[in-house]
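#lab-general

N.A. 3:47 PM
ok so I finally got the sequence cleaned up, no stray characters, all 650 residues accounted for. can someone with queue access submit it? mine expired

B.Y. 3:52 PM
send it over

N.A. 3:53 PM
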Amino acid sequence: MQPSKPVLLLLLTLSLSVAGSAQKQDIKDSLLKRVAGASRDSSLIPVLLSLQEQYFNKNNDSALYYLTQAEQLILKTGASNWLHKCYHGFVRVYHAEENYPVALQYNLKMLEAAKAAKDPFKEAFSYRTLFNVYHNLRMNDSAVKYAFQSLKMTEELKDTFNLATNYGNLCWLYMDLNQFKKAIEYGIKGVEAGEKYRDTTGWLIALNNLSICYHRTGENLVAIPHLEKQLELGKLFNRRRSVERALVNLATCYFHLTNVKGLGEITAIMNSELDANPTSDSRILSYRELVNGYNQLLQGNLDPAESFFKKSVQAALEDSIIDNLQTAYSLLAMVNAAQKDFKASIFYNDQWDKINMLSHEKELSEYGIELEKMYETKKMEGQLQMQQTIIRQKSRMSILLLVGIALLVLLIILAFRNFRHRQQLHISRINQLEQEKQLSATEAVLKGEEQERTRLAKDLHDGLGGMLSGIKYSFQTMKGNLIMTSENQQTFERSLDMLDSSIREMRRVAHNLMPDVLVHYGLDAAIKDYTTELNNSGIIKVVYQSMGMENKKIEQSLALGVYRVVQELLNNVVKHAGATEVLVQLFAENDKLVVNVEDNGKGMDAAQLEKTGGMGWKNIRLRAGLLNGSTDIQSEPGKGTSVNLEFILK
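B.Y. 4:20 PM
back already:
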């Protein structure tokens, strides 16, 4: 089997792309403080929208949370001038999550907001994003319609800044429709417009898409100058995504041209760039390993090439990047065949076949309806006549034999797939039952633990506490009736002081076991009381903030569980974080309760914590899971730790 051609990366349009540099933590902290202390009026809207941008592509759930708050506030205050930007935020998040149907809904809302505001620039912008969403939904008729609608408005408005972007989008669209002549025509227009009007973004889009057209038509030598220009502009204007894609595409072209020197130079540049500007994009990381493998393969170094291709597979598997997996498996099969390790070669061929089958099934399901519309009646009749002519030329026995063999193979495949499917369902059901059993047992243990805590707290407070108070009263009564030396008097006074300390310690223990404040005044008061006590101890500075908790009724079991989680988190901060300050936030919004604990400690590797976390973290995850809550931890060495928990209020 020949290796499949590596699929080159596409540059998205300006409306759905994001600059690559990370924002500083202090900006996010400043925005969070402004949200916590701001009144619920229109002045809070830009703060919420800025905050969602900080979370975009880092924690999209939080981005959606602040977007939802902004939308509600816009509708409540009538600040419709913010609607277009707010809906665009939703489109970006759902597009990044590849949830294109929901992205389409918000894109249509964005278009209506632009029309209501009578802003033609925003309207043209909305048409550009609509093209993008429809294109990803494989609704090419609508994609073409809105691409030309956007181009028409852009030309009428003389919006030269976005003209190159429109042409670049049309190049991309016609390339996907395999109409390469039109694709190249619009790509050239985009490059010319970008250069003429100095529209960096549109220029880069057009260069990228035009070079891909030339590559797909086998004109790699023509593609290379455009990619070199893209690389030059990307470096000049610090567009990291364009730089990375230009390097990958250049390497692919040199590989297909079997240009050892050119590929070696580009590989060295790519390694240097990514070492100087590390990225977490698993697609780029996977391509980096592929490019290094290409370089070793053209030099005849099979073992290093195999190692790089395996690394590419690992990176691609993390985010299920199908095109990279297909390419890497195909090349691994070829390398192992050259090494005469035919067992490994067959294994990688099988992996390629599996992915290829899944890919074709997906394509068929996406394109089925569209393909039916594409074929005209006359062409279908002509194909039928051609098939009938071929059939008449064959003998009936051959046809029956072929059909019989095909049916037999199909039945065997279907039976095997059905057996595997049933087996997987059975295993999945067993695992589910085991998990449910473990959860039930754990929940029973936790409930028993809370009941025992309550009993012990009551016994300590009502039983032992009453006895100690009685003893103290008796001692105080005896004091007036005893004649003691000054030395005995001091000993007696110290004993009374020790008895007072014992009573206070007993009450503190009973309070920790089952705080009365939680039972009588609710979760907000209990956490505030606990953090105040910890703050007064001088061990660490604790800042507590709450929002929306006024008159909020929270079920006792949920309140107790959340209180225990906060206790455990603060205990972890004091013991392990090495922090001087910790922020505790409690928010209630509609049917959701949010807890956030952030410290300025030494931080940790969050990914490693998920795999090998201690009992404290496991208890937190377990309690949150039993309360139908979700947990998210953000931490890096030297940058502190932020733990976010969300619970659904019944």
